[in-house]
Amino acid sequence: MTYEAVEIATGGATLVGDRWHGAGATIVLLHAGVCDRRSWREVGARLGDAGRDVVAYDRRGFGDVPPAGAPFRHVDDVIAVLDAVSPDAPAWLVGSSMGGQVALDAALEAPERIAGLVLLAPAISGDPEPDEEAVNAETGGLADAIDAAWTAGAQEECNRLEVRLWLDGPAGPEGRVSGPPRELALDMNRIVIANGEPDADGASGLDAASRVHEIAIQTIVACGELDIALKVRRSAELADALPNATYRSLPGRAHLPYLEAPDEIAGLIMAAIG
Q1: Which of 131, 150, 170, 257 is the most exposed place for a label (fewest CB within 10 A)?
Q2: How close are the terminal C-alpha atoms of the chain, in Å?
Q3: Segment 156-188, tens digit of pLDDT
Q4: How many other C-beta atoms can be found within 10 angstroms of the C-beta atom of residue 59?
Q5: Of 106, 124, 130, 127, which is closest to residue 221 (Cα–Cα)?
Q6: Do the beta carbons of residue 221 and residue 242 sit within 8 Å?
Q7: pTM of whole model > 0.85?
Q8: For residue 179, with 0-12 CB atoms within 10 Å meaning exposed, 13-18 middle and 19 or more buried, which class applies?
Q9: Which residues make Cβ contacts (< 8 Å) with residue 222, sequence separation at least 6?
Q10: CA angle at residue 36 from 226 to 181, to 5 degrees?
Q11: Residue 142 and residue 172: Cα distance in Å, rounded?
Q12: Closest CA to 36 of 57, 50, 12, 54
């Protein structure tokens, strides 16, 4: 099934999205901080072929949506998206990394709007900053190399290293994932890097880390075995802390599993929704 382009106005911005029209609860796909909505197109097509109603959109500062010029919150934007695409029924949120953080925030801010969650190695609002030395060790020095490239203004080197870390995984060889998925990852993250660090980052101001026990809806938390060890540990901890969550390990996958294995991730989502 092909998608149609959609635009959603919210708080002085216009969000750009893809939609596969179908039946049942709407599924909103939230991209990672190194991606944009295009990362979900292969998964969206499979869910659309299965008859599901699916929306993926670019958050502010990603893909076709420029960075914000004034303070805002990503969680308010996703609620505006729900108002536009699923005004009369709760929707499922599927969030990867930073997108998972937005999904958790939405489940706290508007629980009546959310039918369930599928979270792929999600960030969590309120989590403390990880120890830099430990992260650098767990990434085999990639974290320091990325910081050095960013500081030097070497955007292409920074992009190469970040895709190496997040797509291949720190324990995998560079180029483990190749071809169109890698080219797409490089293209998406190139836009993120070029936009720089925004003055308004869209943070929710919530402390979801201390409030996850309030999120009682059905949740799947999944993480690739090749992801950073910290991400694997934190994802398992989150699943334990949520009242109605199940943890799924993804063998042979890293931080962006839908780019290399869209059939697998579409199947995970379909199984969660039932």
Answers
A1: 131
A2: 20
A3: 999 999 999 999 999 899 999 999 999 999 999
A4: 24
A5: 124
A6: yes
A7: yes
A8: exposed
A9: 118, 119, 120, 121, 235, 247, 248, 249, 250, 257, 268
A10: 50
A11: 12
A12: 57
